[in-house]
């Protein structure tokens, strides 16, 4: 198992869990309603999770790596 795979655990119900560490950032990427790409970065998971996405992904940024949390 790779190191990045062990950071985010998938539960039996499909939800994902991880432990926030100092310096973690969250990135939301996707396509807006006008078919333009967007990238937004947040220090807090609450704000990243609150973005209403049509097509996009949510990422955990840790140690210079981008780890997929969810995709829609």
Please bin the fraction of helical residues: 10-25%
Number of strands: 6
Distance between the termini: 25 Å
Structural class: mainly beta
Mean pLDDT: 89
**Quaternary structure state of the chains depicted:** single chain
**Uncertain parts:** none
C-alpha Rg (nearest Å): 13 Å
Query: How much strand?
Result: 35-45%
What's the tally of helices?
A: 2
Largest sheet: 4 strands, antiparallel
SSE order:
HEEEEHEE
What overall form do the CA principal axes indicate? globular
Q: How is the largest sheet built, in terms of strand order?
A: 4-3-5-6
Describe the structure.
The protein is mainly beta and 72 residues long. The chain has a domain at 24-72. It has helices spanning 3-7, 45-49, and strands at 9-10, 16-17, 25-31, 37-42, 55-62, 65-71. The strands form 2 sheets. A 4-stranded antiparallel sheet has the order 4-3-5-6. The chain has a two-stranded antiparallel sheet with strand order 1-2. The model has no long low-confidence stretch (mean pLDDT 89).
Brief account:
14% of the residues lie in helices and 44% in strands. It has 72 residues and is mainly β.
